[in-house]
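B., you asked whether I could sanity-check this one before it goes into the benchmark set. Here's the sequence:
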Amino acid sequence: MKRHSLSKENKFIIVLLCVAVLTGALLWFSIIDERRVNYGVGKAISQQEYEVYSDLFDRLYKLKPTNIVVISDTTSIQDIPSLSYVERKLSVAQTAMRNFEAKNKHQWPVEQSFKCQNKCVLLSSEQSEEIFRDKKGWQRFRIRFPNSSGLVTLSRVGFSGSLQEAVVYLTQTRDYLFGSSVFYRLRYRQGHWQLDGELVVGVS
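And here's what the prediction gave me:
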């Protein structure tokens, strides 16, 4: 039986087609990946992010005698370590960490959109300046919010490409030189965001 061998020209065309298909596939996946990384970037805090905050608050303050969660009305990620370090230590999905970084390049206003068991109160920068105008600031804070566990400052929430994993940075200050800064990893299971890991990056 006579075999038909491919000519050099046909082999070259096949190679070109394979390269074109591979290049197209890589470009497509890079576009999809970029869309995932930019999910919610440049937009106000989404309802999905408030669901993450609310479920996290329910977990953190569930067993504590806390009636009020006092939250800064602006996001912030001051004094955080290298995000590659956080990604490695907390085993966070790379897309979630990149989404976190992209969203937190600027500060964002926090709204009263929490749905948690505890009462959430927003503290504006004007109110904060009035309370902490002198060394009696924390004494004044505790008088105004007697059943709180300090002042909470949130970051924007970073999501994985599948939207099943989230990472958020939370600082909680209770007094001068008394507070903590923690990264939390959460996973979406059974209709709720469940705490799946934490990394303490600052304690005073």
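One thing to flag: The beta strands are 68-72, 119-123, 148-154, 158-159, 165-175, 178-189, 192-203. Otherwise nothing jumped out at me.
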